[in-house]
Write a structure and sequence with these properties.
Structural class: alpha+beta
Strand content: 25-35%
Number of strands: 26
Radius of gyration: 23 Å
Strand order of the largest sheet: 7-6-1-24-21-26-19-18-17
Largest sheet: 9 strands, antiparallel
Shape: elongated
Helix content: 25-40%
Distance between the termini: 15 Å
């Protein structure tokens, strides 16, 4: 079949060599699933004592993937000269014509695995308009001009701060945490306490923005003093009552980032605990911070982060406080939708990406139907075979295998042991007229 946007290439599963990020919040050495996946994927040894935070699969220049030629046994640790980005530029038909029409010769999503040992920064990702402006002003800090909606799918129990708590919860916080009142002053506190449900969303957002901005911009010495006071109070109260989950989290964050404004601002955010197989998604301009655990992550192809707490990195408090939506309420948790006996699909409200989770018992087979866009497959557990329907192409895959699958290719996967794998692709809602059949065929 001829596809617009470039020359035809032979149907082939393209094995990838991927990049790792050693951020200091990552799990250490062999405790990190990221370290194991990277080692198996690259053939490099895990360095004990070194943090392994993120395993990147995609085309972003901050962590590119490389196209490698597979040997007969399905592995190759040879030359890494061609990036996936440049290979796609030479073969844009692998993206499918709808993707090329929408995003040009660019893979629209970035696929990751995260191993989180301590909290990431309190942060948000800019929308497209702000991303372009920030990239133009500070290209060394904001690496690209794209937005970065994202979704985290828990591999283990996974904890995060995500979005602002409700108005009623915030009022309780201001009643129960006097250190916040001392930091921001009575005027902002009264403004929040006087808002009612009849005042409308905009007044609630305005009062939240005012008090949160005041907190995040407070004097560093004053913040440190109030956090010390908070710590002493909570440790004393722990002797006579059971602390709340949020209070215990705040004490944990204080040990990781003593004196940091992010410790006390955690009271403003929802504390989310995901079980394995649950996911949450984050749109542009929403505050969040991953706390601990391991997850699959998919996002638009970007590395833009605006930070304001729980980090030694560059902080841009003014930009963060001005960009947030100040939407309140608990985030939606996705359990995935079963599309076959072995595959669950996670579809966020973003065009760039979706994720499939596949758990295949020993000796079973399943079909990933042909779709009009590209896919990246990652094997996290076990071994199996990936076979292109209507082709003699077959690849043995094991833990750490990452493969790029061009558009319009139907895949059959057969397990040799229990097999766990994940697929990232363009959101299927973009191809709504294209019906998918997970039993085989279209």
């Amino acid at each position: 079949m001829e596809i617009a946007g470039g020359k035809m290439t032979r149907k082939k599963l393209q094995r990838l060599r991927c990049s790792v990020q050693n951020y200091d919040w990552g799990r250490i050495g062999r405790e990190s699933h990221v370290a194991r996946l990277f080692s198996l994927n690259s053939g490099l040894h895990v360095e004990e004592g070194k943090p392994y935070a993120e395993f990147w699969m995609g085309t972003h220049e901050s962590g590119p993937s490389f196209v490698v030629e597979s040997e007969e046994n399905g592995t190759s640790f040879g030359s890494e000269s061609v990036t996936l980005k440049s290979w796609i530029s030479e073969n844009p038909n692998v993206l499918g014509d709808k993707v090329v029409e929408r995003w040009g010769c660019e893979l629209p999503f970035l696929f990751k695995v995260l191993s989180v040992a301590k909290a990431l920064s309190i942060q948000a990702h800019p929308d497209k308009e702000l991303a372009k402006a920030l990239h133009k002003l500070q290209p060394n800090v904001y690496k690209d001009g794209n937005h970065k909606p994202e979704m985290a799918l828990a591999l283990t129990e996974f904890e995060a701060l995500c979005g602002f708590i409700s108005l009623e919860e915030l009022k309780r916080v201001l009643h129960d945490v006097p250190e916040i009142v001392e930091l921001v002053g009575s005027e902002d506190v009264e403004q929040v306490l006087n808002v009612t449900e009849h005042d409308g969303e905009e007044k609630s957002k305005a009062s939240l923005q005012s008090i949160f901005s005041r907190l995040m911009s407070a004097n560093k010495s004053n913040i440190s003093d109030k956090i010390d006071k908070l710590k002493i109070r909570l440790n004393m109260e722990n002797k006579v009552r059971k602390l709340t989950d949020k209070e215990r989290l705040v004490l944990c964050l204080e040990k990781q980032y003593p004196g940091d404004v992010g410790v006390i601002s955690a009271f403003f955010l929802n504390y989310v605990k995901l079980n394995p197989g649950e996911a949450l998604y984050l749109g542009a301009n929403e505050p969040h911070a991953y706390i601990c655990g391991e997850c699959i992550e998919a996002m638009a192809t970007s590395d833009n982060v605006v930070r304001a707490g729980l980090t030694p990195k560059h902080r841009d408090v003014k930009t963060l406080c001005s960009m947030l939506t100040y939407r309140q309420g608990f985030p939606e948790i996705l359990a995935g939708v079963a599309v076959s006996p072995f595959i669950r699909k996670y579809i966020p409200p973003f065009d760039e990406f979706e994720v499939d989770s596949c758990v295949l018992p020993h000796g079973e087979s399943t079909i990933f139907p042909a779709v009009p866009g590209p896919s990246i497959f990652l094997v996290t557990v076990g071994a199996g075979k990936m076979h292109i329907i209507d082709s003699c192409e077959e690849d043995k895959v094991t833990e750490g295998s990452v493969l790029f699958v061009p558009a319009y290719i139907e895949i059959k996967v057969t397990s040799l042991t229990e097999l766990r794998m994940y697929r990232a692709g363009v959101n299927s809602k973009l191809f709504s007229a294209y019906e998918l059949d997970y039993s085989g065929g279209r």
